[in-house]
Amino acid sequence: MKLIDSKKLENNQHELQFSIDAEALNAATEKAFKREAKKYSIPGFRKGKAPRHMIEKMYGDVFRSDAINDLFPEAYESAVAEAKIEPVAIDNVEDISEKDAADVTLKVLITVKPEVTLGDYKGLKAEKKANTVDEAEVEAEIKRMQERNARIITREGAAEDGDITKIDFEGFVDGVAFDGGKAEDFSLTLGSGQFIPGFEEQIVGHSAGEEFDVNVKFPEEYQAEELAGKDATFKVKLHEIQAKELPELDDEFAKDVSEHDTLDELKNNIRTGMQERAAKENELEVENSLVDQIVDGMTVNVPAAMIESRVDDMVRDFEYRLEQQGLKLQDYIKYMGNDMKKFREGFAEQAEKQVKTRLALEAVAIKEGIEATQEDFENEIKRIADAYKMEVEKVKTLIPELEVKKDLAVNKAIDFIKSHATVTEKAADKKDSDAK
Prior knowledge:
By secondary structure, the protein is of the alpha+beta class. The protein is 46% helix and 21% strand. The protein has three domains: 2-112, Alpha-Beta Plaits, CATH 3.30.70; 151-245, Roll (Chitinase A, domain 3), CATH 3.10.50.40; 261-433, Trigger factor, domain 2. The radius of gyration is 33 Å and the shape is extended.
């Protein structure tokens, strides 16, 4: 690869011209011929047996084109490195080789990272909340633990709010059963809001063994358009009523659900954990406040390609989390009455903010000469390896060293900004001042 020209253009665009020499091109062309020849039919020859010049006579320089595609990634990366630019997207690739030239010359139009003009990033101010915990939060967590450890018992009598009922049901609109409106032995917790408004309330007061009608109206914005706004009747049979039997909140409870011997010790442990989480959250709020001030004060023209790339990442992450729950993204989008374009638009604002934040922190790191050391890199790789129970060397093959060091430099930039800021502790709310 030979870099011929590197030219900065307007609107975060850059033009590169580079050549691939004849020797490399010829070798790649022959390799492409051997790999692709079987795809072409030539009269008088079995597929894959026609000579190269015969295929090229009929189909043109197809193998040269394949060769250029094969050689492009490495040649492009070398040209980018030599030109010392940071691309975010390739906008266009053009073969500008002279006629009958032995080598190939390519002109590539690239969108690059934008230049950032920073405002103030030293001497900023932020308020930090006191790391207090409301006693009501501790009691609420104890209550949740009590609920998680409740026994489920079958009981007699009329169903009440909070009971777990087992029911059969079938729904009808205008006397006709509709798709998806029938189930047997369905477990429904009354008051959970799992069904459309009015359904669960009408089960309250009925006893096991009863059969009755539940009359409801589907919401106007219901996802199934054919049912939206319609009156419906559900034929319901109540098979069983179950209730939660909560354990006593005493020292025995603490021993059963934790490593602590007394309820007071358990509460103290919960309180300490909440205080530690509060401290982290409050520290993060300070960081966000300081970084937001820097983002608001900087000047930058963010390329649309950077925002779209970040949206791509966010959509992939969302899709992965859905798959962990056994759902497909397309099904989820359809269920929500959406389409992919609108779904992506929902991430755009957050994506833009994240891109600007990253650019701001990278700019601070560059201006202050903040870099990650090799020791920083090794420690981070070990941390990742330990977290995912992988070999260190395996992690190194999966994550580029340069990208890890950039991330670490950004983290150091945040520490630098905080160390040069004035952070005052915000006065505690009255309820916080009463917390023990």
